[in-house]
Amino acid sequence: MKAIPEPPFTDPCIIHRPITFHGGGEHYAGTLAEGLDAPIYTLRQTEPLEQDVEVIEFGDDWDRYGWLLNRLPFRSLLFDAAYSSFEVPKHHDAVITTGDAPKSVIHEPHQQRYHLLHAPRRWLFESRASYAESAAPIRWIKRMARSYLRTLDTTSTARIDDFVVNSEVIGRRLETYYRRASTAVIYPPIDTDAYYHEPSEGFLLSLGRLEPGKRVQDVVKVVNNTDYQLKIAGTGSAEADVRAAAGPNVDVLGYVSEADKYRLLAECDAVVFNAEQEDFGIVPVEAFASGKPVVGVAEGFTPYQIEPGVNGVLYERGADNLRAALDRLSNQEWGAETIQETAMQFDTSSTLEQWRALLAGEA
Asked: What is 192-343's CATH number, 3.40.50.1000, 3.40.50.20, 3.30.230.10, 3.40.50.2000?
């Protein structure tokens, strides 16, 4: 057994946060596990993964105490403790952790440790005003507790050998909050072959969760009472506000099936993406894979995705700027095949190729 881990690593495992819903992180972990033929260890699984992979639960006490843990303040401490107590099987030569709590995992010295960072804990680093309205004693306690938890969170990064980030934006946050540089930027896997192109049916599309940070209501206000037709697919806490703001030329579809999502992407004129400081953004890539341009706000990762005049239009946040961007989009001819080519860097095959090269020591 080697004292210092050296590639190639041929027996990796993935340790993931509790699988209690199916989000982008679960899709990434499942695709990676399937592509690397690696098991996933998790505290608890209540939702199935779409990939055919081995999932091993280690939360023996979860059935008895899980309901209580979810109700306790600062429950992240308890999840961190659960993951730090997990004994990683010694036969694995590489350990890939993903999610907040798994960052606390303690691996063996002979194992190479990678952490796939989707985003630092925002409530620790980017939500300082969330308790501003609390009474003074409570506010002080919350500030002290958050400072303590932030120290614990940053301390756990010392045991990680290599950070892999899912975008350049997250790479910068890694440097800012943890003072660490990423070993690699490996984008989330997207099955671009699942998308297809059809002639445009004369409508703009907004796709995704209807949450305040997605700023869909701002798009509605710009499009209302214009010649543009807008279809909005998705649900979320802001759905009622979006419906209330929608004019006669805006159709709020609510939840749509995967088949309907692909069809809407294939038939739209373009996708409008107005999300606030998006870490990555799957929706623009889905649009590119469908051969459709994106009108995107010049924030977060979106400027890394959009090549102006090639696969979309960028604009600075603001109603007038968005309206001008829509007009620029409608006045340009777009090539579906050219747009689809720009999606290939985000394809599942590219993601897995980069991970295999990293584990082989070829990156």
From this structure: 3.40.50.2000
